[in-house]
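Write out a record, focusing on structure:
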Amino acid sequence: MRKLLILCAAMLVSAGIMAQSTATKHVVGVSNKYQKVQKVNQNGSSTSHEVNAIQRPAQNNFKATEAISKTLIGSSKNVYTALVSESTCLTANEETGLIAFTHRVISSSASSSGFIQTSFSSDGGFAWDSTTVIPWQNFGGYSGRYPSGVIYNPTGNTTPANAYAVVTGPMIESSWAGGFYASEQFDGTGINQQYTYNVNDTAVGGFGYVDNMPRNFLQTRGDKFFVVGEANTDDGTNYTGFTTIINKGLWNSTGDSVDWSRSVNIPAYLTDGAGNPDGYAIPGLVFDNAGVNGYLVYIGRDGDATDNLTFQPMIYKSTNGGSSWTKQAAFNWATVPTIAAIATDLSSVNRPSFGSVKDVTIDVNGYVHFATYIHGAFSDNVDSLGYFNVYNLWNGFVCDIHQTATGWDAFIIDTVWTKDVDDANSPTTDPLTWDERMQMSRTTDGSKIFYAWMDTDTLLGEYNLYPDIYVKIYDVATSTLGPKVNVTKGGDYDANNYWMYFSDITFDMGTYYQLHVSTTDLNLSDIAPVNHRYINGLYLNSAGNLVESVNELPLDAFVSLYPNPTSGELNIAFNDNASGNYNLVVYNTIGSVVLNDNIDVTGAVVRTISLEKLPAGIYMVEVSNDNGKTSKKVIKN
């Protein structure tokens, strides 16, 4: 690895230094995103029409991937639904097959422009319901903004209609007012709406702190929910204090709702010369599958560290579901070979410079993984620790830093080549900035971890204005990182993918993995309506290679069954990629055939069979053709 780093550095030409100061409110990065959201939220409604933002460059003559297409999910009032990749807009649940995208509605009515909607698919992403589930409907007169959403699935349920959408986010009145928390069953019933109010939080069941922006790293773990908010303070220019709000939810089966409580954590950052905290404002948050052991991952100056003249990870752990947090032993970057090599090869002062946490997950062994840039620090002067070396046509290494049985380790996920889009290069009328939007996903058991990000071919420019989508797989058991796969190059979506979201869960289909990715249209007007789109046919095989033909896809990619459980009729839904003759066999619990049929299919169609005459119990429904078969358990009431 050391040799590789030296070669990479030697091939690049220095282009100066870049600041990553985090105590200043208006710098590019997480804090700037917060400031930009404030500005736009107060613009009110708009009647702007959707327009194309950028003229796409000439496309390369690569063969398009046959299996990849995009399907309309739904629309939003403007692009700010998709502003930050730390939000959980796209999510999935393997037990029900649900894929869901939470977003602000599009409406000509000012009274409903703050409604928050969850569009969903139960057929693998080919058809989306964008009308049934609207969990937040301006309860109390407060408009929702910039939401996150997850799927709560009751234990043992396999029926999509019986699961729930749970959404959170900030809300406004005439200005920021607090946070909203809502849920609704996917059949469109059982809406529950709650909020915390910033001005007098204790009067509405709060705990004495404001609860700004409760949208980051929302996740569900069984019947528990977690999302990061903040009660940071500032002087109008710089952050003067960081306070993390951990919103904790517990499903209340009696009330069909979430009971929310909150805890607080204040990172022990060292301060700069002005007395302001020296670190990033927003930590990564992750909990294990039981929702008991959780981690907050900050990046900043740690007074307990051997080297406190650089931003580096600062880890807090909870062993009681987030009620309290304990700072862990200081991170020592010098003991991690990959990080030490980056420091030696890319820094004039032999120190790394860590970026903010991009995403965080937990693997099958219970170990934390988080993604961040690691650059070479430019200076060891206490007033210049937020500066790092930058190079022409090279944005930096994004790394996976993770726990092991003996401590911490890291590897380079990949290189991001083009620079973040800043105000000077933004194509929108009110400039919006964006980065590569690196995000992580995993199989439900955590045995495989996946990475997705956006990058532009450097032949098209040095800024990430014409992004393609890249993915990689990591096998935890073998510690093997798969190949870098460009999902969109050479097809209809070459160099035209914006505001990407990557679901926290990837479906494990045996020898294939279905990755869930969405994009959002980019417009010249930042307050014009936008469409959100789901990428269909994104499958990797076990080696991490993209499935390039629909004929290679497993039948699970074509077929879904519902309702389940059923009292009689069972629908077998085939999506657009299905074609030909399919054999349908239903087995009882002792393996006897109780129904056998053949179905001819051309494209999207739903066939219905009757199980009404069969006794109540569990059955296996097998659908097969010449290319393979899939079996699904069905419960007959």
In short: The radius of gyration is 24 Å.
